[in-house]
Amino acid sequence: MIDLYAEIIINSDAIEIDRPFTYKVKQDQEEIIQIGHRVKVPFGRGNRLVEGFVLGLKCEGIENIKGIKSIMDIQDQDPILTRDDLKLIDFLRDTYLCKYIDAIRTIIPVGLMSGLTNKKKIVLHFNKELDCGYDKKENYVKLISYIKENDGELTKSDLTKSNLFTVYTINKAIKEGFLKACEKIVYRYNTRIYDEDVKNNLNEEQLGAFNQILNSQSKGFVLKGVTGSGKTEVYMNLVSKVLMEGKSAIMLVPEIALTPQMIERFKGRFGKNVALFHSKLSPGERYDEWFRIKKGEASLVVGARSAIFLPLNNLGLIIVDEEHENTYKSEHNPKYSTKEVAKFLSNLKGCKYILGSATPSIETYFEAQNGELELIEIKNRVRNRPLPVMEIVDMREELKCGNLSILSRKLYHSIDETLKKREQIIIFLNRRGFSTFVSCRSCGYVFKCPECDISMTYHKNGYLVCHFCGRSQKEEKICPKCGSKYVKFFGAGTEKAQVEIKKYFPSARILRMDVDTTRAKDSHEKIYNSFKNGEADILIGTQMVSKGLDFKNVTLVGILAADISLNIPDYRSRERTYQIITQVAGRAGRGDKNGKVVVQTYTPNNVSLKYAMENNYDDLYKEEIKIRSIMKYPPFSTIFLIGAQSKNEDTLKEFMRTLSGQLSKLLVDEKELELLGPNPCIITKIKDNYRWQIIIKGFLELELKKNIKDILYQLTKNVYNEIRVSMDINPNNMS
Ligand code: ADP
Ligand code: ZN
Ligand code: ZN
């Protein structure tokens, strides 16, 4: 008999044990155990029982056989991880430098390891016919027919709540054998039935896109269609096709675009076959959806980014809608890019993947230009609806005329007019990111780092800092361009906007949709429904109002401060501005009435704005790709960010200097790579933890990345063990 051994990853965050450990498989386990099984094993000197995952099985090549411990227990009947999952784990480790366990936890349902299981309840079924002579017959007849009417099963509490039967009668009926009690799994996912979603016949452009994707030999596609061009309808038709072939599909949308409307459409079209997956699900709901998918009871997933990891069988299609959205990048370990994972899975499973957007990201469009992705365009809105009319307002002129309010005269009058016509308005204020850039209200000048072409950030100590290269300079009170003293940094959020607008339009009914008003579970849906039903005239909001909303009666969109996104300290700010303005503007004029958009800005000549007004993506792209190439930003490099945190600033600085020294040595022959920093992060301190960063710019080979990871592990393991480090490839923001 040959002995069998298992390679096991221990469920622990400790960096030191981020490697497989060998365990002996007991004889009675040999028949059962498979790669991917979750097991219990004794670990460490105390032989504490811990959970682990079997990543490999082998018979030979075992060292130190004497000291080897045995697997205690196999946790589940079927393996949790598949062979493909193991490849995915390797991909995540190599690409994002995460630990084994981080990759595993990303793939399996949260809650599994904290002991979550199915939720069960006891239901009563009809068991045997009444015999005629029975004297309490009438009661039982009522009871049994009541249960039959209610899907043939009810819990005891359902029955007593009906106030028709007493506990005594129910218990007696069980005892006499008329009813039978059984255990039943309660599903914690959304089982609501939705109205059927009426299918639109695809128009010519949509049909063209649909056929091109179906018939092409390519694996990856960019579907570039203007807002309201009916991309979702194309997706749904493709999904139908895939499901009919007996395959499954993943449809990803950014969390904020997973609106009640989107859910209604998919649930209404595909019914029970759809699983929903997003961050507002409870661990129980996630657990149930995960196993429902694993069992093949749902073959379409509509969800936010983490849904890419769901265990669909026989995957036939991956759709990433609004692919330009930055929420497709995870901010937790592994800090994966959903699009990269989609591409990997498409290769692994041999299925197609589609990146859809009205405003593709520069990197994606670059791939399309290179031929790595096939470009498909839809240039017109459905039913040939016109795109909204875009108007720009120069807020410097407003200031000159003594208007200091957040509403320009044009936007004020447009709101007034729209209210009179009883049409609806969306007001957008991009409050996210850091409104700490400094600009001149008189001429629009913004302080930027001359080295990096990135807005400098205002610090309370009176300095302006570039968080990319670390350059800093003293704040200036007077504009270097025009000499005005209206040099200010930006503030004001949606709440303040609501108060101000209410002041001007006291009888208008106003709703606000932002992080603060949508915290409770159904609040998002309530706001959405009430606006849809015409119970409000104006909807004010952040990014949440910028996508996924399809209200026919919205004819005016107001963008309060287009400059905010232009000046986030990031090389993507121009691109983001174009995207945001186009997306928000796309909410207007989706019904039969034409739409209008008013964009307020201090920098009306900015090219991103100009191109957004003209719906001119091509020129935006041409200009942007040139800048990226000159400045060596992605796609012409990768930005590798190493972050570190500690409560003790001195130790942190010392650590960063040591690290930087070691990295310089490592990279000494890598002429193409730039090492920037160490610098304090934009947010210098969070929860009493100081934050510093180092950036490596350029393309890094896998070996080099692994060496950097080793240096970090060694340093934090041996000397600086209270410092927390993180690595991020092409981070979303460098804050
Ligand atoms: P996008 O995702 O490109 O913004 P949608 O798929 O949401 O666009 O479509 C916008 C609106 O047009 C939706 O209300 C949708 O029901 C409708 N629609 C889509 N395709 C058609 C079509 N072929 N004919 C008529 N209406 C359509
Ligand atoms: Zn100025
Ligand atoms: Zn700089």
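qc> The first strand starts at residue 5 and ends at 10.
qc> done
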